């Protein structure tokens, strides 16, 4: 028995599309993808394919993939990125570090990164999950050498 989907665009499609593409919050993107996964419509399918192929956070890619498979689309599963999920991450981190006083703490660094480059902070937080703070602290420590 196949699952029944809505075929009309939801009334709040424009808002959901905006949230699905919002670069500063992977949580907003995944929530929008999950909400859109109930509507089998060409525009939704295109949007989900875009998230599958272009999102920086694996969890969002995976949610889009599952929705597309449920719709019967023939798509390849996402691959977990092994290296920088955002090009030039090390340069960004160095720039943040250089903007702080020499005696800054890790908390200062993490806070400044979040304020200066929320997109980077958010993408890695979503990608790394529970290991995010440990990973970021290791990066910060390596920049101090």
TrEMBL record:
Descriptive protein name: HEAT repeat domain-containing protein
Organism: Viridibacillus soli
InterPro entries on file: ARM-like, ARM-type_fold
SUPFAM superfamilies: ARM repeat
Superkingdom field: Bacteria
